[in-house]
User: Fold this.
Amino acid sequence: MGKVVQLRHRDDEDEERNFFPRPKGNTRKVVKKGGKRSEKQEIEIEGVEEFAVVKIIERAIISISETLAAQIKDEMADHFASCLSKPPNFTGVENKARASCEMRKRSSRSALNDLEIELLDKYNIPYDEVEIGDAPTTYIINPDYKDNEKLIRKVNEALQSVRGIPNDFIQLQEPPTQFIVSDDSINSVFKKTSPGIKKKLLAVVATMAIKPRFEGNAKVVARAAKELLENFDFDASKDED
Assistant:
């Protein structure tokens, strides 16, 4: 709970009174968005500087990781697209580092969007349509009889003789579906002859996965990390959210 300040009214009406006393302590002007200014109290806290440096390094490492991963995955896609048939996965090497480089079929949990379907259709790449979710609760015909056309016609004729039944009393309920990549999708991509087209299609039907490993002690890793941070351009002045 904050300190309660007793406000005393003076009898002298001409003297200016302050009904909003400011807290004691050093203050500094802080410019916020929109140009408005407010006052913040400054209190020295041990560890703030180190924490600020760590957060800068953290942001830099995330940015470096994302940049390098995108670069490596692009090179992997170039390699796979240059092959005449679906190639095996491989190990990427550079100096003291090794990485498992894998091309994986796109997850069945990742549905194809309209633009991706349009691209696959353009190049005759097959894919699967699967049912998703649960259909809404309703009265249905026993599924055992759904393909019995003769019985369906009899029921339909019988219902027509009953007065007052609307035409849409019985409706066809189909479960929602989505389109996903199949095993045949990737195999069909490698039947294409153009590396450029194969790379474009692989970006839809496959994902590139990297599992790196560095062979060196802590000092070697520290030197490599220091060199990365020194050579990578990032904004160290960005405020932490």
